[in-house]
Write a structure and sequence with these properties.
287 residues; alpha+beta; three-stranded antiparallel sheet; 9 helices
């Protein structure tokens, strides 16, 4: 009987030492966890993001909204510029857009049915030009419009009928399915709807100097499609501004300004244009 208190005391003594040991270990682990967390925060702040959003373009007009790949936006801008150079009505651009969407989803593809290639899936064997020429969107668009204006009363024809008269496709009825999208694109890229085109592309690594904007090259390429880049009307100014935004990634442009509004390649600016630039709208500023 005399041993019972001793056994009890020794039991509680061991239990107390074990509890203190657990507390000590837990405290050490907590300190280490805090240190590791702080270190990770600093590393993550300095590191490049693991997932960078892809470049995109968006079009917003009273007729509706569309999301585009940058290549689609560039082709849409080219079609509008060529139409303006040829002094064609917006109806011609609508027909061209509906055709391009049906034929290639408005991408400049190097394949198709038999020898069909390019935005409009034109064929070398049918006299549209060489494959190299057809793969040039400016050339291909000019050839499309040259054929379209020969179609009698094309302005009054249904979009599908006018497109089919040029393309002579096996399924010409399908062009009609894209008339709504074509109207949205025409309003935005012809300049009829101001501030309708917004694009964004991911910046380069923070430790790498940003490429210099190639503004002169951008203007030369615009002139290939549009001819004179002089701004003779506010609508023409917005056409040039939309073309420039659509080609921003290609020419490393980070800012386009016109008529008191400015686009910039910033994530927080993804809602579109903001106030900025010369209010008079005498020129489109590129930088």
């Amino acid at each position: 009987m005399a041993r019972e208190p001793i056994r009890t005391g020794r039991f509680f003594s061991v239990r107390l030492r074990f509890s203190r040991g657990v507390i000590t270990i837990a405290a050490i682990v907590a300190v280490l966890a805090v240190g590791i967390s702080v270190g990770l925060v600093h590393l993550l702040k300095r590191a490049e993001p693991l997932a960078v959003p892809e470049a995109y373009c968006a079009v917003r007009t009273p007729d509706g909204a569309l999301d585009l790949d940058p290549e689609q936006a560039q082709i849409a801008a080219t079609i509008a510029a060529v139409a303006a150079r040829r002094r064609l009505p917006e109806r011609a651009a609508v027909i061209a857009y509906a055709t391009a969407i049906q034929e290639s989803k408005m991408f400049n593809i190097s394949y198709g049915d038999r020898d069909s290639v390019g935005v409009f899936q034109q064929r070398e064997s049918q006299g549209w030009g060489s494959k190299k020429q057809i793969m040039d969107p400016v050339y291909a668009t000019n050839r499309f419009f040259a054929a379209l204006v020969k179609v009698k009363d094309y302005r009054k024809l249904p979009v599908a009928d006018a497109a089919q008269a040029v393309q002579r496709s096996a399924g010409g009825y399908a062009y009609a399915d894209h008339e709504g999208q074509a109207r949205i694109l025409a309003g935005a890229f012809t300049g009829r709807v101001p501030k309708a085109v917004h694009c964004w592309y991911p910046p380069g690594p923070k430790r790498t100097p940003a490429p210099r904007p190639r503004t002169d090259e951008a203007r030369r390429q615009l002139a290939r499609a549009l001819g004179s880049t002089a701004i003779t009307s506010e609508k023409r100014g917005w056409l040039i501004a939309a073309w420039s935004v659509a080609h921003a990634q290609k020419f490393s442009l980070t800012r386009v300004a016109y008529a008191g509004a400015a686009w910039s390649n910033e994530m927080e600016a993804d809602r579109g244009w903001r106030a900025g630039g010369q209010a008079a709208g005498r020129q489109v500023e590129l930088s």
